[in-house]
Design goal:
With 292 residues, the chain is α/β, with parallel strands linked by helices. It is 40% helix and 18% strand.
Length: 292
């Protein structure tokens, strides 16, 4: 299985970051532009754009943010809003000529919100698919098994190709990376298993697989192991296991170190052991490791 280089979708234009939220609250357009440039200069290939509820309530500001970012950088944008009306605002504002002709990303479509694909009538786009959930008997159900993740990826890719004419290269499967500190249900291992099944499926050859990399290190203490901050070490550990399976795109902070750890790094060794555990065994094992 071929391992690809990692594509970074810059995550910082998001109200989940306090400094970014302050930019939105103060309508600091130059500050937003500087944050866009910082991510692009650090190697981001796309910028994820999420201004929170204001995207729903203030279309003018949403348009102003998009135009300002496109005036500052020439990389394409990913619009992170699970609503068709907001995607319509974004796509009618986005100018591909200012991104060297590159399509934007619609983030994200799920089986429970297929209507968002109507946004493709506005202009061509790449589609990010949430594979962590499925529709069953008319209800949204969270996936817990790798085969369920693969099944959603397969169904959605087939539909996007046949009904909307998308190539596999324009489909991005989000396997949803869980917060490792609270992963007593084995969802990290589920994501890795789903990535492997997608990567081995010839019908999905050329499709991209991604996840929110920062999620995996949330809630962990501010410690260092062998000279590496714990959160960063956990992110890099995940990448070392996921990328050989076909994971090639990460929603992440581009100036973080995403290089491989030494094979004997204590966090990588512990990560490999802990993802095999669930329930109380996982929680006990994690606590024991954090005491070291």
């Amino acid at each position: 299985m071929k391992q690809h280089e990692l594509t970074i979708v810059g995550e910082r234009i998001n109200p989940g970051f306090k400094s970014s939220n302050a930019l939105f609250e103060n309508e600091d357009i130059p500050g937003i532009q500087e944050l866009a440039r910082k991510q692009a200069d650090a190697g981001a290939s796309y910028l994820n754009i999420n201004i929170g509820n204001r995207a729903v309530d203030d279309a003018q500001f949403m348009r102003e943010v998009i135009r300002a970012i496109q005036a500052a950088v020439d990389i394409p944008l990913s619009f992170d809003f699970p609503r068709l009306d907001v995607q319509e605002i974004c796509l009618t504002t986005y100018d591909p000529e200012k991104a060297k002709g590159h399509k934007p990303i619609i983030n994200s479509v799920a089986e429970s919100r297929i209507d968002m694909l109507d946004a493709l009538k506005i202009q061509p786009a790449r589609i990010m698919v949430m594979a962590s959930e499925r529709v069953e008997d008319g209800q949204m159900v969270a996936n817990t098994l790798p085969v369920e993740v693969h099944a959603v990826a397969s169904r959605m890719a087939t539909m996007l190709r046949s009904k909307h004419g998308l190539a596999n290269d324009d489909i991005i499967i989000d396997v949803s990376i869980s917060t490792f500190a609270a992963d007593n249900r084995g969802l990290t291992k589920m994501a890795l298993g789903g990535i492997e099944l997608i990567g081995c499926d010839p019908e999905l050859d050329g499709i991209h697989v991604m996840g929110g990399l920062s999620n995996v290190g949330l809630m962990l203490p501010k410690k260092e192991y062998a000279g590496v901050k714990l959160q960063n070490a956990i992110e890099r550990s995940f990448l070392m296991l996921a990328m050989p399976l076909g994971f090639d795109t990460a929603l992440a902070t581009p100036w973080q170190d995403h290089s491989p750890l030494p094979e004997d790094h204590p966090v990588l060794v512990a990560f490999k052991d802990l993802i095999e555990l669930q329930g109380v065994d996982f929680l006990r094992g994690l606590r024991a490791f954090l005491r070291t």
